[in-house]
Amino acid sequence: MNKNGKVYGSREFNNDCKLKERIEENGYNTYASLFWRNNGRQMFVALNGKGATRKGQRTRRKNTTAHFLPMVVEQQMKGLFY
């Protein structure tokens, strides 16, 4: 996530790639930028109803668009992801 709250893919690991994961009371996970803030407020990774990313400036921790369910990966599937 860049300083404008836009989520993007990067070949190199940098400060834009650092996210804070929080497990919410409802069992969902939220991810906020560690490096960037908007007027002192955290910017969260969020997806709209069509699956497109929302700008971090428009997101809040309690928005359901910023809630993600963790997925358990079976041992056989681990090689597919890394």
From TrEMBL:
<protein>
    <submittedName>
        <fullName>Fibroblast growth factor 10</fullName>
    </submittedName>
</protein>
<dbReference type="InterPro" id="IPR002209">
    <property type="entry name" value="Fibroblast_GF_fam"/>
</dbReference>
<dbReference type="GO" id="GO:0008083">
    <property type="term" value="F:growth factor activity"/>
</dbReference>
<dbReference type="InterPro" id="IPR008996">
    <property type="entry name" value="IL1/FGF"/>
</dbReference>
<comment type="similarity">
    <text>Belongs to the heparin-binding growth factors family.</text>
</comment>
<dbReference type="Pfam" id="PF00167">
    <property type="entry name" value="FGF"/>
</dbReference>
